[in-house]
Design brief:
- It is a single chain.
- This protein has 90 residues and is α+β, with helices and mostly antiparallel strands.
- It has one domain: Glutaredoxin (3-Layer(aba) Sandwich).
- It has three helices and four strands; from the N terminus they run E-H-E-H-E-E-H.
- It has a four-stranded mixed sheet.
- Strand 1, helix 1 and strand 2 form a beta-alpha-beta unit.
- Helix 1 runs parallel beside helix 3.
- The radius of gyration is 13 Å and the shape is globular.
Length: 90
């Protein structure tokens, strides 16, 4: 049985395919039925540049969260998963 995927706007996940921590986050999002914009930093140089310019480092996974007039950069796979687990359900 497939879950209905809930698109979460104003969120972007910076990752690359073979990173085990990125795989952990992507799998958790899939299990929760959550979809966010994905930005691979190895396939697209501009994604890597955006991550470094905004978040200050090239560490992945990194979740970019847009809230009102500010942007938050959340690192660490467990913190990202916990963030989505604590989002109010729609």
């Amino acid at each position: 049985m497939f879950k209905i995927r809930k698109n979460i706007p104003n969120h972007q996940l910076f990752y690359f395919d073979t990173c085990p921590f990125c795989i952990k986050v992507r799998f958790a999002l899939w299990k929760m039925g959550i979809k966010v914009k994905m930005k691979d930093i190895l396939l697209r140089r501009e994604n890597k540049a955006e991550l470094i310019a905004g978040g200050g480092k090239k560490q992945v996974p990194c979740l970019r969260i847009e809230k009102s007039n500010e942007i938050e950069w959340l690192y660490e796979s467990d913190a990202i998963i916990k963030y989505f687990q604590n989002l109010p359900t729609v």
